[in-house]
Amino acid sequence: MHFPRVSMRHLSTSQRGVFAIASGTVVGQVLALISAPLLSRLYTPRDYGVFAVLSALIVTLGAVSALRLELAIPLPAKEGDAHSLVAAGLLSSLVVALVGTTTVAIFGHQLSAMFHQPNLMPWLWIAPAAGSLMSCYLVFNQLAIRHRRYGSVGQRNLLQSVSMLMIQVSTGFAGLRPGGLVLGLSMGQLFGALSLTRRAGWRSQEAREGRHVARIRAVVSRYRRFPFVATPSGFLNVLGLQLPILMIAYWYGGEVAGWLGLTQRVLALPVALLGTAVAQVYLAEFSRAVRGDFDRAWRLFIRGTRMLVPIAAALLLMNILLSPWAFSVVFGPEWHESGNYARALSVGLFAQMIASPLSPTLVVLERQGLQFLWDVLRVVSTTIVVAGAVWAGSSALTTVWLVSGLSAALYALSWYLSLWCLTTVVAAHASRHGPKPISDTDPPVETGFTSPIQVPSGFSDPQ
Hints:
By secondary structure, the chain is an all-alpha fold. The protein folds into 2 domains: 43-223, no CATH class; 252-463, no CATH class. Helix content is 77%, strand content 0%. It has helices spanning 13-42, 45-64, 79-114, 121-124, 126-146, 150-173, 179-195, 205-210, 213-222, 225-252, 254-289, 294-331, 336-355, 360-364, 368-391, 396-433. The protein is globular.
């Protein structure tokens, strides 16, 4: 049977971007999937419980350490302004790391006692630095996305995954538990950030001008909605993702948190393979489209949705049918309960895989206030649901089912808000400038996304 070869020349710019990012990410995530059974035998559920709490703290801190200025990097028309945002984001990350280390010195023992995990304290010292490294990686990643250096992002994805896994496996064999897991996460962020500094244009005249203090102040002032609105929103956004694991660790103990932690780690693989790359390329292409071609912006959103829905639905069905059996076979009998958690979380994951990659719509349209209200709603509703389940005496598994159902409803709302804002902007633009004339001689609009039926052979997994 003959399969046609696909030339990269026949793919659009954004399709090549998705392919480039996917090529590195797929290999890295496949390695992570292959090594997961080994890690589950090197580390116990309680080890994963400590790691779940630490990684939740690191991710929450890393998401806001740069004051969300990294999200603005693809937006300025002038290259020097983008480098001003890079400098401001890196400086903010350094300050947050210093403040976080001081906080651990003062309140570290109380935090360890709160989660009833005495093994937590020795590794809490890593969290501020690891969070800062994650923030630096986000800054450099967005600069690479601005320059359309998708190949560099793909290489970074591979390097980060490989370095993290090598450290986690080697420290596990050496008996450095549970800290080996968090050490691997931290060093993966470091190597990933360093790999993106190449070809970043640090020595260009525009970059040097962008690092002048006066210009940094002016540019940060121009994009002040990102620190003042997007940062609280981003904090609540990440906290909403991490809050269930923190609350379950607090109320149900370290072993349950470990089961749930492994589940989230495994289920994060399809999200990383699909959602992260699509979101990064969508942000770059959508940012360009809203500068003048609102019809293309609309098509990007609709085609992206059509591409994501069948893939998410297939993963939902697979998780519901196979998770308990698969977790027991692959990771060992002591991880059977993680399979039940995977089945419960799959409902929320389905909605997340559709809405999350398209959520940059609100950022680009500068509707951070609306995003902030959604983030507040998620944190408040998640707290109420988990606290109510605990008060009612529900099991941990029942609580996870409730959180997953709530997550699905919230992500459906997020998708609708993006659609509503985009529709409003497109309608307003059309009323001011009139509809775009269409003729038979007009070239087709490059959307950057295709439905699964239209995806060329050899490009069926569009991360």
